[in-house]
Amino acid sequence: MQCFKTVLASLAITIAVNGAAVSEPLLIRNSYVVPIDWQPMLVAKKDLASHWGKSYVMEAVRYQGTPPMITALATGELEIAALAYSTLGLAVENAGISDLRVISDQFRDGVPGYFSNQFFVRKDSGIKKIEDLKGKVLATNAIGAGVDIAMKAGLKKHGLIDKRDYTVIEVPFPTMPAMLNEKKADLVTTVMPFAIDPQLNQIGFPLYDQTEGMGSTQFLIWAARQSWIDKNRAALVDYMEDMMRIERWYLDPKNHDEVTKIVGAMVKAPPERFSWLFTKQDYYRDPSMMPDLAALQRNVDATYEMGFIKSKLDVKAHSDLSLIEAAAKRLK
User: Fold this and answer.
1) pLDDT, tens digit, for every residue of 39-62?
2) Cystine design at 87: which of 66, 122, 136, 254 (Cβ 3.0–4.6 Å)?
3) pTM for the full model?
């Protein structure tokens, strides 16, 4: 009898443990690069989320760039990656992540009326047009990065070819103004918020922006593996619903003052420095998190035409927008 009771007790413990495992919220690790980015801002307003801590929990994970995210996706150390258009093809082609899917927008560059990444030259350089960059030294944040490809696409449009007509060096965004001021580079690459740096705008001006060579760009997207999506679809619709609700709160102009305070606290800087956030000075973000697949296809095609990937990629075949579509219906 005692043995029977022991067996029953063990069975009860096993059922309890397994039941707890089944009800454990799905861990979603979502990546970002720069401190002022969606992922940490989403965490800051998780009080608006209905399902956080129930069907899922999100962890914002910072990487130095998008290439390490590809490795993390491949090894199961990351569930959702904020990839640039320039690394989507690399993830599928080079890393062999054939089931990688675009699942949402993060932001677009160059949407009419909104900000586009800029390429600055010194006011006293004598450079007045793109053709004047022949034989010059140009600074990019990383070879093969989204802004790097866009910079070179604009130059190519004006007959200037990488390595043949100019030299490219890699420089971190925060040190771009110093490189230009010290004449170590004739052109520097700027993204927000570095493009509105007072020192940079005192010594230089934007010769052209990213739209010159790329048009409107689906610059960053969220990507995940289809196998993982299919396994966790219900929790992911909950997740996208919450993310969409939080995003719309940030995009609402009436919340702008609070937004600047949140971001200021995140990076320990005065809130007034972030008055540009979620205005026309900023990148465009879709309230329904819907990516512009037509723009993304053009952008990925450009990476192929410029030799960064070896074969063309069908963007639609590597997209699954069902999660955000289901989430949007809940919020109507």
Assistant:
1) 999 999 999 999 999 999 999 998
2) 66
3) 0.86
